[in-house]
Amino acid sequence: MTTPAAGTIVTLRVRREKPPYGWFLGLDGEEAGPEVLLPYGEAEGARPAEGEDVEVFLFHDDKGRLAATRRKPLLTLGQMGRLRMADFHPRFGCFLEMGIGRQLLLPIKELGDRRERWPQEGDELHVVMKHDKEGRMLARLAKIEDFQAVAFRAPSSWHHEQKDAWVTETFRDGVFVLVEGGVLGFGALGYIPDAAMTRPLRLGEKVSGRVTQVREDGRVTLSMKPPKEKGRLEDADRLLAFLRERPGGAMPYSDESPADVIQRRFGLSKSAFKRAVGKLMKEGLVTQEGSWTKLTEAGAAGAEGADGADAQEGAPQL
């Protein structure tokens, strides 16, 4: 019998009970062979009897000794899974919950150099359990080949649908994600380009995005931004509200304003700004004069009407 390793689920025979510690289990088929302790606190369920075979998960205790538990782990040796980050140590890395009351270490060297992209407590990381040089359990970030073994091809019906996904890898021009599959299974592979983000994303973060493309290979491209038409309506409403709060209902920004000024002031691209202002102009709510955009009488009257409506809405009913 091969000696079982940490991170594996095995069936071992109970050799003896030794209070106040627990039960000693045989690690091989020999009566006098090596043993592993199943502590009382780890023996969930019915008490095992001498000579009984029990299924246990093996791990190293706080003193580095191989020990056993009857608790079921979320991950075993060689498997990939999504584990929640419980804590972070600046020297060691991320400590991940694995379902047995102990945590699995993801070394800090796995996180890369961009600290702003490092995970935070509560984020969920896709990892594979492996061993370090001493045979202790350790995690590594899942790679594309790990996902390919469990991911499915996204159906074409996903196009334009809103989906949840977890960031699995970060790059300078975007992030790889695993898109939640629901009843379809583990998930589908996806990508969110930087240009389609509304904010920077970090490793392990859960994000909601709209599927903008289902590729022939079954992978998808997502965007955190709303469709252009919806975005145009929201941007127009925001600019109108901004103008109504300005003295004289005017602002020193127009189609002539530089793109970097528009981006800095409103967080919009020049084209998005022009689409929003164009909508307001078409509706007769604003007009442009040189580098200025101003409310028309109709645009200003709308603000007064809204205030009046709010007042009526808040008035007591007779």
Automatic annotation (TrEMBL):
UniProt cross-references to SMART domains, sorted A to Z: S1
Source organism of this protein record: Cohnella xylanilytica
Upper lineage: Bacteria, Bacillati, Bacillota, Bacilli, Bacillales
InterPro entries hit by this protein: CvfB_fam (IPR014464), CvfB_S1_2nd (IPR048588), CvfB_S1_3rd (IPR048587), CvfB_S1_st (IPR039566), CvfB_WH (IPR040764), NA-bd_OB-fold (IPR012340), S1_domain (IPR003029), WH-like_DNA-bd_sf (IPR036388)
Ranges of residues in domain S1 motif: 160-225
Protein name: MarR family transcriptional regulator
Region (Disordered): 297-318
Family of the protein in this entry: Belongs to the CvfB family.
Example of a GO MF term: nucleic acid binding
Superkingdom, natural source: Bacteria
